[in-house]
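Please decode residue identities from the backbone states below.
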């Protein structure tokens, strides 16, 4: 899967988010890179994402960590949606039976629709929860 965009967390130096062509995004913990010594040479083991989300129907066009909350992330997609995510939230396993699969991920907090051809988004650094986005039909705050 091709990676279109990436964003380092400004609060956790080891967290990286990547957005992909298939509409998914992943969270990577750089501390998971384990180095081992083999014949005096260092090798880096394969890195696996610590979380992977598939919600958007088309390619991720932008993503960004919240500047003040290390569990919040915003994504935009070629499917003309912007989604706010809270990665600290988990599904309530007491109310979901094993054979049921929640239609909406527990981490999905808000979906914004109405713009066409969304290109990028950015969090406001002083107003919590405020996101600006640019698209072919203008910008939204």
């Amino acid at each position: 899967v091709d990676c279109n965009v990436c964003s380092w967390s400004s609060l956790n130096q080891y967290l990286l988010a990547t957005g992909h062509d298939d509409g998914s995004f992943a969270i990577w913990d750089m501390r998971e890179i384990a180095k081992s010594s083999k014949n005096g040479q260092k090798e880096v083991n394969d890195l696996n994402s610590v979380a992977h989300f598939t919600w958007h129907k088309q390619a991720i066009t932008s993503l960004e960590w919240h500047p003040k909350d290390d569990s919040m992330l915003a994504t935009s997609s070629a499917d003309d949606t912007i989604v706010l995510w809270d990665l600290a939230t988990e599904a309530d396993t007491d109310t979901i039976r094993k054979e049921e699969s929640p239609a909406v991920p527990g981490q999905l907090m808000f979906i914004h629709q109405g713009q066409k051809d969304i290109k990028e988004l950015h969090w406001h650094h002083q107003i919590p929860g405020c996101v600006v986005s640019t698209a072919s039909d203008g910008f939204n705050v």
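Observation: Residues 93 and 109 are 18 Å apart (CA to CA).
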